[in-house]
Each structure stands twice: as structure tokens, then as C-alpha cells.
């Protein structure tokens, strides 16, 4: 089996893990009432960019090999590193879902009896789920030996993050007031102690 096939299989397994981690929370979210939301065109754009970059473009590449002209040589060290980073991403992704629990939403929403979570990964950074998306994007870049499909994840993450994070923090400040302001003073956004 070629090194590029190993990288592609590792990416597919990572995405399957992503789906099974998220599915129960999506189901549960349907049963918890939304009390306010910030759904907007830019929010839809961000979600679409993340879906395109982290799932659709790489899946299309794995299935078809297109765009062939953007291929670069696959290296075993890169695939191993990519697999380790993707596993770390899934571990963080799972932890964030477990901690958010009934407070989780795919978009910007406040749920009935919404609680501000500050434990687990949320003690280190305010947006650890976005940290896991960033790690997924980096893992994807190492796993797929193609400039377009490999880097699409980081581009998709960047669009979602930039379009959303200020609005999300504003929404949380409106909901939790000084409690969220204190939380902001104590934590970074996505990279512990740095940003
Ligand atoms: C897709 S989740 C992402 C959560 C967070 N930004 C992260 O990256 O881990 C988005 C929803 O989580 C909720 N949320 C964000 N931070 C939260 C926190 N610290 N505690 C509880 N809910 C939070 C908000 O209601 C938001 O609509």
C-alpha cells in the first residue's frame, strides 16, 4: 500500500470518528429548547466554509484524486505526524462535547438553563472545540499530499473562526455578564497561554 493511501485511510477514519463523537449531541440538542440565537448569513457562510474545507474538498480528493496537479510527494513521517495530530484533535473534540453536554449547539445559540462551562479544556481556553478544528486542519495538511485538499481544512477553519468568534463572545457576554468577562480575563481563546 502506498504512503498516500495510508494517509487517506487515516483521514477517512478520523472523519468517521468525528461523526460518531458528534452524533449523540446533535440528537440531544433537538430536545433542549433554544432561548436565543445569533443565526445570520455570516454564520451560515462560516459553517459552510468549515464543512467544505474540513470534509467536502478532502473527501472529493480521496474519492477522485482531483486536483491531481496539486499533488506533492507523500512522506511517511508526515502521515505519522498527521495521524497523531488528528487523534489529538479527536480527543479534544470529544472532551469539549462531554463538558458542554446539553449546552452544545452547532451554531450560536443559548439553551434553556444554559450553564457557563469553565472546567476541563474550558479551564485552559474559551474555545477548545475550535482548537480541535485547528488541530484537524493541521492533521489534514500532513495526511493528504495535495496542496488544495491538504490546506482546505485550515482555510475552512480560519473562515469559520474569524466570522464567528467575536459574535460568540459578545453573545456569551450578554448572557453571562461579569461571569464571562472574568472568564475572558483568565483564559486565552484557542491556544493555551498564547492566543
Ligand atoms: C459549536 S459550540 C463551540 C463552543 C466553544 N466556542 C468552543 O470552541 O469550545 C457553540 C456554542 O457553545 C456555547 N458555548 C460556548 N462557550 C461556552 C461555555 N464556555 N459554556 C457553555 N456554553 C458555551 C454557545 O452557546 C455556542 O452557541
From TrEMBL:
Q: How does it sit in the membrane?
A: Multi-pass membrane protein
User: Which Pfam families does the entry mention?
Assistant: ICMT
GO MF annotations for this entry? protein C-terminal S-isoprenylcysteine carboxyl O-methyltransferase activity
Record's GO cellular component terms: membrane
Q: Which Gene3D superfamilies match?
A: 1.20.120.1630
Q: Give start-end ranges for the coiled-coil region(s).
A: none
UniProt key word Oxidoreductase: no
What does the UniProt entry say about where the protein is found? Membrane
Q: Which InterPro entries match?
A: ICMT_MeTrfase, Isoprenylcys_mtase
Looking at the record's lineage, which domain of life comes first?
A: Bacteria
- Report TM segments: 6-25, 45-64, 76-93, 123-141, 147-165
| Primary location | membrane
Q: Which UniProt keywords apply?
A: Membrane, Transmembrane, Transmembrane helix
Name assigned to this protein: Isoprenylcysteine carboxyl methyltransferase
